[in-house]
Amino acid sequence: MKDYYDFAKMKGTKNPYIKYLRQPVTINLEHDSVEYFKSLAEETGIPYQTLINLYLRDCAINHRKLHMQWTS
Q1: Number of Cβ atoms within 10 Å of the Cβ of 42
Q2: Interior CA angle at 40 toward 66 and 21, to 5°?
Q3: What are phi and psi of 57, to 5 degrees?
Q4: Which residues of 50-62 are buried (b: 16+ CB within 10 A; e: fewer)?
Q5: For residue 63, what is the DSSP state?
Q6: How many domains would you assign to the chain?
Q7: Cα–Cα distance, 35 to 32 (Å, whole number)
Q8: 35 lies in which domain range?
């Protein structure tokens, strides 16, 4: 190892994995929705929060939109 490192000469590079980092959020979900993903988690062995993330990511990648029709 060197006794001295000159970091001023180093060129910085952006983290190529920054798009894979997770952002913690708080979201209120109905009990039935959480229980559904928890039951899937038991079947698959994948944590339920990961399953929710995978589902939401799939919706975003495929540009899925919820089609709702409000009745009066």
Answers
A1: 9
A2: 70
A3: -65, -40
A4: ebbeeeeeeeeee
A5: T
A6: 1
A7: 5
A8: 30-62
Q: Is 50 among the domain residues?
A: yes
Given a cut of 50, the residues of the chain with pLDDT beneath it are none
The pLDDT value recorded for residue 37 is 98
Is residue 53, in this structure, part of any structural domain at all? Answer: yes
- Contact status, residue 54 vs residue 60, Cβ threshold 8 Å: no
pLDDT of residue 28: 97
Backbone angles phi, psi at 41, to 5 degrees: -65, -40
Q: Are the beta carbons of 41 and 47 closer than 8 angstroms?
A: yes
Integer CA distances (angstroms), 47 to 29, 30, 40, 62, in order: 16, 18, 9, 23
